[in-house]
Design brief:
- InterPro entries: Ald_DH/histidinol_DH, Ald_DH_C, Ald_DH_CS_CYS, Ald_DH_CS_GLU, Ald_DH_N, Aldehyde_DH_dom, Aldehyde_DH_Superfamily, Succ_semiAld_DH.
- Belongs to the aldehyde dehydrogenase family.
- The active site is at residue 256.
- The protein folds into two domains: 6-257 and 459-478, Aldehyde Dehydrogenase, Chain A, domain 1, CATH 3.40.605; 261-447, Aldehyde Dehydrogenase, Chain A, domain 2 (3-Layer(aba) Sandwich).
- Helix 13 links the parallel strand 18 (416-420) and strand 19 (438-441).
- The protein is of the alpha/beta class.
- Helices cover 36% and strands 21% of the residues.
- The strands form six sheets. It has a seven-stranded mixed beta sheet with strand order 14-15-16-13-12-18-19, sandwiched between helices.
- The chain is globular, with a radius of gyration of 23 Å.
- Helix 2 runs antiparallel to helix 4 (102-122) and helix 2 packs antiparallel against helix 5.
Length: 485
């Protein structure tokens, strides 16, 4: 990995604008999933460093929270510009530690930067209200204030964008942040911290704890009385644990958890549009996103036409190391991810699924899996109820609109759903009946800074991005002025 800006490759804990080793000098290795090579040995933060980071955030919050929003926004805007200036290096770093193709990585960096730009501006729009008083001698006012010190816990599949989507609105609101990035991908987090320091963030506003001790650090972050808010993206299973732990101090939570996204292809859909959109949703990041197509429901009248085109398109996807220009499918993140896909595939085949394309590990490397299509899927298969998180298209057949809705909603999750139709009446009806926080209509890519991102049911609650995103980091204070003459 040859970075133009070599200072982006940081390996220590970042607290109070200082780079520190772990108390016990412990480290852990970060590996490139494409070839298994070691990228770096990174400091392994402990509970002691977590306490230090919280203390630094508490101290700076006293001044950062009262800093004018315009001033905070100017620092965020500088951070945004530095991210853009270093976009190629950040993308290479991302591909090296996470595995996604370089073109996708560059897209993620730009997407991540867009949150910094957006909230640099949105911080100046956290308006209060003057409420008409029910009595003559009182005036009723509300203002919005930063909630306090925030703990952010982010996943490995989007190691730039999932960070900026949380910390940018927190900074804009006036909060200080303690971030625990995923152990598989800490380098992007540390690079963002370096650029944040260069942009002029005061010491303590942004603190980053790379660690292999996720459970221990998570316990501290969710129970510490000085942490006012926890924002987590990850599995529903872990989200439940964090909810229980946070209950001890009644923290505000934002949870973006698991998904089980259906894609519905109705018989009046444009086949080329449906194929393109489904592939975009399913195979981005080798199927490792929470909004990936998990179940592809095809109406029986269009099934043959759709499948012929879909198989041809999937067969042409190029698998390999993400640094190569023509690669579209990179590796899975680690061996456990490969084993999960293989287990789900074995279960599906044992229950009647038929492999029509792929279905095994790729010869590109130990962590690569072939772009796969399986048919004859049903609700009894484990992949119908669990996130596949791999490049496997599970195909189901339905007859009626009512059946499609019932199949789509038959899950505890409710993050994203997609469907394809040319009928406007059907589009409104289906969109309103799908029990999901996000719905893509004739489109497989649905995430934009300006739009709210979040789910319902056991996919969590709270919204990130959009004008709603900053509200998650603020409280409303009501003030009653009496004795008005």
């Amino acid at each position: 990995m040859q970075l133009t800006n070599t200072t982006l490759l940081q390996k220590d804990i970042f607290i109070n604008n200082q780079w520190l080793p772990a108390e016990d000098n412990g480290t852990f290795a970060v590996y490139n999933p494409a070839d298994g090579s070691k990228v770096a040995d990174v400091a392994n933060a402990t509970v002691k460093e977590t306490e230090q980071a919280i203390a630094a955030a508490v101290e700076v919050f006293k001044t950062w929270s009262s800093t004018p929003a315009k001033t905070r926004g100017a620092i965020l805007k500088k951070w945004y510009e530095l991210i853009l200036d270093n976009a190629n290096d950040l993308a290479l770093l991302l591909t090296t530690e996470q595995g996604k193709p370089l073109s996708e990585a560059k897209g993620e960096v730009m997407y991540g930067a867009s949150f910094v730009e957006w909230f640099a501006e949105e911080g100046r729009r956290t308006y209060g209200e003057t409420i008409p008083s029910p009595v003559q001698d009182k005036r009723l006012i509300t203002i919005k204030q930063p909630i306090g010190v925030v703990a952010a816990i982010t996943p490995w599949n989007f190691p730039v964008a999932m960070i900026t989507r949380k910390v940018a609105p927190a900074f804009a609101a006036g909060c200080a942040v303690v971030l625990k990035p995923a152990e598989d991908t800490p380098l992007c987090a540390l690079a963002l911290a370096k650029l944040a320091m260069d942009a002029g963030f005061p010491a303590g506003v942004f603190n980053v704890l790379p660690t292999m001790q996720a459970a221990e650090i998570g316990q501290v972050l969710t129970t510490h009385p000085a942490i006012a808010k926890v924002s987590f993206t990850g599995s529903t299973e872990v989200g439940r644990i964090l909810m229980k732990q946070s209950a001890s101090t009644v923290k505000k939570l934002s949870l973006e958890l698991g998904g089980n996204a259906p894609v519905i292809v109705f018989d009046d859909a444009k086949v080329d549009v449906a194929v393109k959109g489904t592939i975009a949703s399913k195979y981005r990041n080798a199927g490792q996103t929470c909004v990936c197509a998990n179940r592809i429901l095809v109406q029986e009248n269009i099934y043959e036409n759709f499948m012929n085109a879909y198989k041809k398109a999937v067969k042409n996807l190029q698998v390999g190391n993400g640094v190569h220009a023509d690669v579209e499918i990179g590796p899975l993140i680690n061996e456990a991810a490969v084993q999960k896909v293989e287990t789900l595939m074995d279960d599906a085949i044992s229950k009647g699924a038929e492999v029509v394309l792929g279905g095994k590990k790729s010869n590109a490397g130990d962590l690569f899996y072939e772009p796969t299509i399986i048919t004859h899927c049903n609700a009894n298969m484990r992949l119908s109820n669990a996130e596949i998180f791999g490049p496997v298209s599970a195909i189901y057949v339905f007859k009626t609109d009512e059946e499609a809705i019932a199949l789509s909603n038959a899950t505890e999750y409710g993050l994203a759903a997609y469907f394809f139709t040319e009928n406007v009446s059907r589009a409104w009806r289906i969109a309103e009946q799908l029990q999901y926080g996000i719905v893509g209509i004739n489109e497989g890519i649905i995430s934009y800074t300006e739009a709210p991102f979040g789910g319902v049911k056991q996919s969590g609650y709270g919204r990130e991005g959009s004008r709603y995103g900053i509200e998650e980091y603020m409280t409303i204070k009501y003030m009653c002025f009496g004795d008005i003459g």
